[in-house]
Design goal:
alpha+beta, L-fuculose-1-phosphate Aldolase, 271 residues, 10 helices, elongated, 2 domains, 17% strand
């Protein structure tokens, strides 16, 4: 007897996360998307993994992800509505045919499909799993302050990262791997997916200039917290950027943080 899927911890946490992201103002309208890598054991308690509803073409190829399961947001769906219509606005899929197709196991009940950013998500999953096999989440959203920052700050990755690190002690601790940045690219394309995945090799945060942000993590909390921390730093930056800076967090102090928290700054980013 299968358990009620609406009681599945992974589904409850996905809904809570989406509502929290919407409440933060990161995901207006149908902006933003999330994909969560699941294992067969946790899914099989709630749905029949040997029976699928339909097959959905993915528009890309990722042999390394064949046979993997994902809980993913639907295209055109509003985060504010997911708590009321989870079976419509979310879906569980299994990648087949070297990733070129996906079997829909649950969800998208209105005949919909996964987010248009699905290829970008899967490409990023593939790269993050090579770097850290524990990474299970890719999260895309439009954090207001980070987005605003891309209009007034250099998009040089080292400069962008150092500015965020200097805004709050926590930033250096939370993302010592820094932030990568892409110039404006057309969204929903394999081009931006490939570019993002390449950036994911060296950082869990990838800023899309004049658009938003991609974050990766071991679970929904970690990915959310990563984005939340960077967004807080961007907010502080925008509050003080026009003022004379009298104090900052120095490189020497960041080296102290390295020793205290057993972390390592991205190579070449500190003096």
């Amino acid at each position: 007897m299968l358990k009620e899927i609406l009681n599945a911890p992974f589904l409850i946490e996905m809904i809570r996360t989406e509502m929290n992201m919407y409440a933060h103002g990161w995901d207006e309208r149908n902006g933003g998307n999330i994909s969560l890598l699941l294992n067969e054991e946790e899914i099989s308690e709630y749905c029949n993994v040997d029976k699928f509803l339909r097959v959905i073409p993915t528009g890309f190829k990722a042999p390394e992800l064949e046979g993997k399961y994902f809980l993913v947001t639907g295209t055109g769906k509003y985060f504010k509505n997911v708590q009321y219509f989870p079976e419509r606005d979310l879906g569980i899929v299994k990648l087949i045919d070297e990733g070129e197709n996906a079997e829909l196991l649950w969800g998208f009940s209105d005949g919909g499909t996964f987010t248009s950013e699905f290829p970008a998500h899967m490409m990023s999953h593939a790269e993050r799993l090579k770097v850290n096999p524990s990474n299970r989440v890719i999260m895309h959203c439009h954090p207001t302050n980070l987005l605003a920052m891309t209009y007034v700050h250099s998009l040089d990755e080292k400069k962008f990262t150092r500015t965020l690190w200097q805004m709050c002690t926590e930033c250096f601790i939370v993302f010592p791997d820094g932030v990568n940045v892409l110039p404006w690219l057309l969204c929903g394309t394999n081009e931006i997916g490939i570019a993002t995945a390449e950036k994911m090799r060296t950082s869990r945060l990838v800023v899309w200039a004049q658009h938003g942000l991609y974050g990766a993590g071991a679970d929904l909390d970690e990915a959310f917290g990563l984005i939340e921390t960077a967004e807080k730093a961007a907010e502080i930056y925008l509050k003080i950027a026009h003022l004379p800076i009298l104090n900052t967090i120095t490189d020497e102090q960041m080296h102290l943080l390295e020793k205290r928290f057993n972390i390592k700054a991205r190579e070449g980013y500190l003096n």
